[in-house]
Amino acid sequence: MWFEAWGALFDSSIADSLCVADEFGPIAQECCKTILPLLFCSTYSQIELLDTSKVGDEQSEFEVFIFSAYQVLMSLIDFQGQYVLPLILEAMNHSFEIIMSKQPQLYTEGDVCDIATTCNLFLEIHSNLIYKIENLEQLQSMYSPLFKILNILPQITNNDAGTVVIKLNSAIRTLFSCLHEYESQITNQYINQLIIQFIQIATACSNTEVSSKVIDLLFELILACRPEIYQIPIVQEILRNGTSFINKFPMVLRKYVISGMSDIIVLPMPDSIFKQANYEQNATGYKLLIEENVIQPIVQCFQTNTFNNYRDLCKTIQMIVKNKEDLNNLNKQMILLPLNPLMNDILPKTLPVMNIELLHYTLTLYYNILTQLHSAMDEQSVGNFIEILFKIFNGKISMIIEENERHSNSSLSLFIKILCFFVKEWRYRNKNKSNTLYISILMKSYSLITVDIVNNMNIKTIGNSIFREGYLLFFRICDVYFEELSKNYQFFGMINQMILQGFSLPDIELVKLIIENVLELNMNKKLFIHPTFKANTVTFCIQLLNVLIKNEHSQEETIDLLYNILDADAPSLLQSFNIVLHSFFQQHPQLTEQQKNDTTQLFANAIDLPTFSFATQQFINDMNCYFN
């Protein structure tokens, strides 16, 4: 009740009066002195008599008590921040000093006094305090508990270490943004000390997960405080002696360091705008750094036929290119400088002799590079790489699908995704012009899907990503090259076949994907009213009705497609469907006249999708009764 009373008072309109607020200053201080010992672990023993047990998701007596105290503290911060802020900072520091004096083995999971619980509480209070900070000294005081925790991370062996690092991440990011507002010599000295501290922690900690997150924080700090931070001694040393800095870290951590170094070189300005002067200044050094630490080790893998590090090296490049799609082309060209020899020379020579596992890693790498840096990549080089992949997979599709081996499936699926991305992105570069390479790859892709992939679909392949990616590629090609493909009437037969083939399998996700893409193709290219498609509409709709009667899955989606086809270009939905029903009855002479009349009557009031869906569901039920 004490907490509720104080909370109500601080939230009341009376407390908004400045004169009252000034008088409440000493009272707020006294209140804060009462609450703080209850909130920090150093004096939890004072309330140990409270019940900590709970049922289900209900809060325990202890949790309710702590939450009430916390709410009053937050009201105090809003109401009398200038009085209580020093007290809160002092209490947090004192509490964390006590934690530091504990032995690491005492940090036990579930203990209300443990490091993770205290850290969580710190972060909650931190989010409400940060906007009250007025100078760098207060900021340093506020964050000193946090960095004391960082210092003992290497000593913590239980799960608390990983939990704490994750929790610290958001708080430290806020610190970075605040530091950038204080442009002073003392700020730079503080940041210099923080970076050195991060490096010491990351190299000393035996927990790889913790160390990797600390390395991420190190480079996030540099990026958050750029460009001024590039002038401080430790950052200059990192940039000047990149390879030596990387070698300070264990092998398992180097991919995080290399990726971080790539970011601070490629993104030297807060707006990520890379000017020609930046490029000329950094290009040679950047190229050498990535060549020494990534490209040359990859070459050595193939020269020595030893691939222990190959996967990690591929992941390093994936981390380098991650989230770079929106950069301008000059930034991307910088990243591609050391990667071009790899993609245009080294990998094309080694692709044909790779085993399936190495091929999987390589295609994962290439797909990531392509999707992120494509705007700065040369079409001919990408096309040459794709042509090699066509040769590798030629004649092997049936075997890969039949064997259903993980890496083989994934490699073929990645190849199809690469094709789909190429068809989509390079269409704009080839708009209004003839390009032999692009058209050649497009038609080979069309053949791959309509001949090799679809003909191998069966009940055993349900859920296989190869077919989902294959359908996406098929509809992408249809959209890009519709005008040319539609000149051949067989193209529309292929669309119908692809749809019916996909619907024949109880793969709900595949059916949804097909319908979504068919409707999109119709929206873009008016598929349903194309003369050749319309000529076969009745036959196709009957086939869809037969699918509905036979299959229990995906009925709602199939009905939706049927409705859209019938409603595309007809005087009325009913008239259009009556034509389909008439042909359907001719295919099923076992139906009596009464059954035909009853069926026709079902659709008498079908004027929109809801009424059509209801009638069609009844139609399906009736047909199953009539035919069984």
TrEMBL record:
What family classification does the UniProt entry report for this protein? Belongs to the exportin family.
GO molecular function terms attached to this record: nuclear export signal receptor activity
Main location per the UniProt record: cytoplasm
Annotated protein name in UniProt: Exportin-1 C-terminal domain-containing protein
- Tagged with keyword Protein transport: yes
| Biological process, per Gene Ontology | protein export from nucleus
What keywords would UniProt list here? Cytoplasm, Nucleus, Protein transport, Transport
What is the source species?
A: Entamoeba histolytica HM-1:IMSS-B
The record's subcellular locations are: Cytoplasm; Nucleus
InterPro entries attached to this UniProt entry: ARM-type_fold, XPO6
Q: What GO terms fall under cellular component here? A: cytoplasm; nucleus
